[in-house]
Write a structure and sequence with these properties.
The chain has 227 residues and is mostly helical. It contains eleven helices and no strands. α2 packs antiparallel against α5, α2 packs across α6 and α7 packs antiparallel against α8. The protein starts with a helix and ends with a helix.
């Protein structure tokens, strides 16, 4: 047990809550990509069965393991053929942004539900202390991790959504240059994320940003509910 605690990025006692959150967060993230790609005329994801909320078709085992060990990871990327879009760049931006925005939405909904349960006395009315602790841990995990995934996926380096957005926003001549260096950018990205000293400037600031977002929205909803 001690070995696992040292190996994992997250506290082992919170592991079930992280896994539950990841199932929801990754599934909606990839579904959002697939849904908008299909809606805009690209059936690639639909033909592969990716326009679904079934978690099994979206999960990547290595990506989940790395997220639990290193603090970052990924689901199975949704294949998108922008050539099928009537407006490839504009629709490409929406498809790329849909994933991170779905995590932002989940984080906000989590804050809303948590604040409502607290302000309306639902949590205080539960006699079981362990159940109350579990509710607090779940919402804390769910909210912060979804905000983290929102920020993480907006990093403008491949293979993340932020890079695809920059690629579609940038002038075509710059996009072409970016594509030539894409393989090296992926290597740089992995190095700065995996190597522990670099995590002080990558992963950890993103978590601080995620906590900041959670505090902002919780305070807003608590105020809204009269807390």
């Amino acid at each position: 047990m001690e070995f696992l605690d040292q190996l994992l990025f997250y506290p082992i006692e919170r592991l079930p809550f992280y896994l539950a959150t990841l199932i929801i967060a990754f599934t909606l993230h990839e579904f959002s990509h697939a849904y908008f790609a299909n809606k805009f005329g690209d059936p690639t994801a639909k033909l592969l069965g990716r326009v679904t909320l079934n978690p099994a078709v979206h999960f990547d085992l290595l990506g989940i393991i790395l997220l639990l060990i290193a603090g970052f990871g990924w689901a199975r990327p949704v294949p998108v053929n922008r050539a099928n879009f009537s407006h490839p760049r504009r629709m490409g931006i929406i498809v790329s942004a849909a994933g991170p925005l779905s995590n932002m939405l989940l984080g906000i909904v989590g804050c809303l539900a948590y604040a409502a349960l607290y302000q309306f006395g639902v949590i205080e009315g539960i006699d079981n202390e362990r159940a109350v602790d579990a509710i607090h841990i779940f919402f804390d995990t769910f909210i912060v991790l979804n905000f983290f995934l929102f920020l993480f996926n907006l990093i403008p380096l491949p293979p993340l959504d932020g890079y695809r957005i920059v690629e579609d926003v940038a002038p075509r001549r710059i996009s072409a240059k970016l594509q030539r260096f894409e393989q090296w950018s992926i290597l740089i990205f992995l190095l700065i994320i995996i190597i522990p000293p670099f995590q002080d400037y990558t992963i950890k600031p993103l978590y601080r940003g995620a906590y900041g977002l959670s505090v902002f929205f919780l305070d807003m909803f608590n105020t809204l509910f009269g807390g």
